[in-house]
Every structure is written in structure tokens, then in C-alpha cells.
């Protein structure tokens, strides 16, 4: 009898997740095309000045996306442009500023002026990496040749795919991920526990992510 209950539980769990997966689109606020246009506008207006581009992007988003319930889909954005934390993941290291985080989307500025290289991770979300400064190189196993992404271009990594990537010299990007965000977090935090032991960074990353997700949940943005 016991196994029957376990089986029923498993089937229910799988159907619930399959169903949620088919309707996750209704919680999306951003779209990859507009963000790509915005990243291109930032590059054209402030080419090579990362700080000015970040500020340009955040003011545009603040003006474009309603932050109060009277105006359709709402979203909470993090205005603290000096709130950067290190991120070590998949062997690569950089710093990020979390502009927005929810259960189904995140939007961050990620990069380093030094260059880095690693594994993209195997994720449950689609990833759009909009290059602002520098270059990102990428390589799929078997491709034998590299992909090159320059300022104004976007590197789309569909969910479930992994690549090797390199920011050969410095590179900063506006990274947008949509899909299921919480399962991506262990990848972002594993290196802290297994390698860097940088617990202050771990604490601030967890604190900022939780705070931003919670702010969004409170206004019904899942
Ligand atoms: C934001 O950027 C987009 C893309 O460049 C542009 O079409 C739009 O007019 C901008 N909005 C504001 C409020 O600046
Ligand atoms: C940014 O700097 C690089 C290297 O100095 C240069 O090749 C490129 O043209 C610059 N881009 C812009 C948009 O100013």
C-alpha cells in the first residue's frame, strides 16, 4: 500500500510542476527583445563607460516598468547601484549588481575588468547575456570553433544547455534570465561553500536576493 501512496505523490508532484511550467510565462515582466534594445542604446550612448551604462539602464527600466499596482504588471527594481557582490560560479569570478530578482526572472549586471573563464552552469532558465563592454567568447562541446559576442550583441543560452565561456579581457553584461530561478541558486553559491569560504559575500548575496524576491512577492510578482 505504501508504495502506491508514494507513486501517487510522485505523479501529483510531477504534474504540478509540469503544469506550472506551462503557465510560467504569465509572470514575466521583461522581454529579451526590449532589454536587448536597451543594452544597445546604452552602448551607443555611453560606449565603454560601464558605470554610465548601468545608470542609463536603471533609469530607463524605472521609467518603463510600472512599480505601483495601478498600472498593470508591476515590478520591484533595486535602485542601489553601488550594491555589488562578488560571484564565483563554475570556475569563473566576477561581480554582480542585482537589478531585479523574482521566482521566474532575474536581471543583473555581471562582469569583471580582469577577464575570467568557466562553465556556464546547466540551468532551469533561458539566459540572455547582453554585452555592454568587452567581449564574451563561448564554446559548445563539439563545435571546435568559438562564438564571439561583442558590445551590443546578445548571447542566448537556452535552458538545459551548457557551454564553456570566457571573458577574455574585461567584460560587463546585462544578464537576463527567465524560467525557474531558485534551482539556479546552488550553482551560484556552491563555490562559496567548497572553495572561496567568503561567507560575508555569501551572506550579502543571500540577503539581497531574498530581499528583492520578497519585495516582488509582496506585490504579486512571482
Ligand atoms: C528605454 O529604452 C528603450 C530602448 O532603447 C527606448 O525605446 C525607450 O524609449 C526608453 N524609455 C525611456 C523612458 O527612456
Ligand atoms: C571601447 O574601447 C575599445 C578598446 O579601446 C575600442 O576598440 C572600442 O572602439 C571602444 N568602443 C566604444 C563604443 O567607444
What does this structure look like?
Helix 2 (32-46) packs across helix 3. The longest helix has 22 residues, at 2-23. This protein has five helices and ten strands; from the N terminus they run αααββββββββββαα. The protein has a single domain, classed as Jelly Rolls (Sandwich), CATH 2.60.120. It has a six-stranded antiparallel β-sheet with strand order 1-2-3-10-5-8. It has helices at 2-23, 32-46, 50-64, 185-196, 199-218; strands at 84-89, 92-101, 105-112, 116-119, 125-134, 136-139, 147-149, 154-157, 164-167, 171-179. A hairpin with a 3-residue loop joins strand 2 (92-101) and strand 3 (105-112). The model has no long low-confidence stretch (mean pLDDT 93). By secondary structure, the chain is of the alpha+beta class.
List the helices and strands and how they pair.
Blueprint: H1 2-23, H2 32-46, H3 50-64, E1 84-89, E2 92-101, E3 105-112, E4 116-119, E5 125-134, E6 136-139, E7 147-149, E8 154-157, E9 164-167, E10 171-179, H4 185-196, H5 199-218
Antiparallel strand pairs: 1-2, 2-3, 3-10, 4-9, 5-8, 5-10, 6-7, 6-9
Helix pairs in contact: 2-3
Bound molecules: 2-acetamido-2-deoxy-beta-D-glucopyranose (NAG) (2 copies).
The site of one 2-acetamido-2-deoxy-beta-D-glucopyranose has 2 residues, from loops.
Family: Belongs to the ERG2 family.
Pfam family, one: ERG2_Sigma1R
Enzyme class: isomerase
